[in-house]
Amino acid sequence: MAFIHRVITFGLIPIIALIALQLYSPETFHNARAIFQPYISSSRIRTFDSLPRSETRLFISAVTHWSHFEKIAKVAVALAELGYPITLITGRIFKNEASSLHPNITFYPLLGQDDKLTEEQYATMASLPPEEVALYRSRLVLVDGMSTTHDTLQQVFREFRDQHGNDRPLLSFYDVPVTGHLPILLGAPGIKPDVSFAIGCHPILLDSNDTYPFHIDKRPETGPDARAIHWKAYQDRHQDYFTRELDLAWWAKLREMGAIQDSYGSMLHAASALPDHLMMMGIPEFEWPRTDLRSNIHYFGALKSSAAKTREENLPSLWDDVAKAKREGKKIVAVSQGTVETNFDELLIPTLEALKDRDDVLVVATTVVVEPEDTLGFTVRGNVRATRFVPYELLLPLTDVLVSNGGFGAVMTAMSNGIPVVVAGSGQDKDINKNLVQYTDVGVKLEGKAPGVDKIREGVGKVLDDPMYKKNMGEMRRRLAAYDVGRVFDGVIREAVRGWAAGKGEDVL
């Protein structure tokens, strides 16, 4: 018994302490490492993580769209704060924002690519029937832009190899829609990262016999024929006009770039299936149950804003009215149309109309892309306050319901604050987000992009009157709080570095 006690005291406890120190206080860990390094430098044995963070450069690329860039930028900042040097690759339009994020972050522009649609491209879109517009835009972003993104990445990778050879791991992270990463993962000529990581700021895109395809507005089946029904739905999706045309264009582009395969899967699936690791925003409890969930999927919870930075900024003039309404016991309802679907007649204005007669409610409307006074048909009534921007990390703790068009980022932000939601919207990831909201009972799902005044009034009233939604969202908030973005990414990176070092034949502790 005494022997076992000594083993635990002098063996196990120090190891646990080392692991805890590395995870929870990396700066202290590396200070200690620096002290002991001279005594082991002559040995082939490296320290626990095999390469300090300050020598582990990360390449992170983001789509040139604000809703994507702001999320990927928060991941980059979390890792920069741990000491990682980062090259952040995105469009030139975000040069100022990217360059000012953190001293450890270096901006690198996408080469030879316009950051916005040209007048000619807008004219082409205007000439197309509605069903062709989405396909045209998707081809521009996901297929036609693939070559220049690939070329940019190859230039960055070449500069890294020229500087470090194979003495440093080449670690590349990409926002899932950055399809320029895919050719090299499918065998195109060029420098392939030692480890690749996709970052998904949406529910899982991977095909699964346990769920319907990503864009289908249905909850998974649960009966004995469920898997067969789901499989049939995927076969039908592959023959869907939009999916088929986009995949055909993608396959042709891959062959043109030298990524030759006997057969190609769907782009939607491949973007998440090809990397070594898939880093997923959110939590598994806010996903459909899957029996085929891959072991290389890592949830990292919600992205966090800097509340301290926000408090230093000037709050909008409506803030005093919000505080006053809260003191008077009124319910606060926040509504935003989002950054992609910006037709205020679909959700924002109908919400104002739906709640105009409720004296017990103050509605805070954010227009995001334009000033409220510049919006035609936008009328501010007695119980409405409107602004282009309001810091949600400060507003949502005071909010009782968030009315949203169902974007994943908005749902995660609400979940981080324990605020139930009323969600409308369609397209992108919105249909699956709405169904997950309904499935988990953290809010109310409304049908379509423009559910109408009556349905919005009914949905908001339901959430305000039934405490179940608040309780369920509070439980999700508790589960979400168990994840830390930096810690999750850091753990996966350190394991990747250890694997890289082991592959080079270097011993690691």
Keywords:
Rossmann fold, globular, transmembrane helix, transmembrane
Folded structure, characterized:
The chain is α/β, with parallel strands linked by helices and 509 residues long. The protein folds into 3 domains: 2-40, no CATH class; 56-301 and 485-503, 3-Layer(aba) Sandwich (Rossmann fold), CATH 3.40.50; 309-480, 3-Layer(aba) Sandwich (Rossmann fold). It is 46% helix and 11% strand. It has helices at residues 2-24, 26-40, 66-80, 95-99, 119-127, 130-144, 146-164, 182-185, 226-239, 241-256, 267-273, 307-312, 319-327, 348-354, 392-395, 408-416, 430-440, 453-465, 467-480, 485-503, and strands at residues 58-61, 86-90, 105-109, 171-175, 195-200, 277-280, 297-299, 331-336, 361-366, 384-387, 401-404, 421-423, 443-445. The chain has a 7-stranded parallel β-sheet, sandwiched between helices. It has a 6-stranded parallel β-sheet with strand order 10-9-8-11-12-13, sandwiched between helices.
Summarize the structure.
46% of the residues lie in helices and 11% in strands. With 509 residues, it is an alpha/beta fold. The chain folds into three domains: 2-40, no CATH class; 56-301 and 485-503, Glycogen Phosphorylase B (Rossmann fold); 309-480, Glycogen Phosphorylase B (Rossmann fold).
Helix and strand arrangement:
Elements: H1 2-24, H2 26-40, E1 58-61, H3 66-80, E2 86-90, H4 95-99, E3 105-109, H5 119-127, H6 130-144, H7 146-164, E4 171-175, H8 182-185, E5 195-200, H9 226-239, H10 241-256, H11 267-273, E6 277-280, E7 297-299, H12 307-312, H13 319-327, E8 331-336, H14 348-354, E9 361-366, E10 384-387, H15 392-395, E11 401-404, H16 408-416, E12 421-423, H17 430-440, E13 443-445, H18 453-465, H19 467-480, H20 485-503
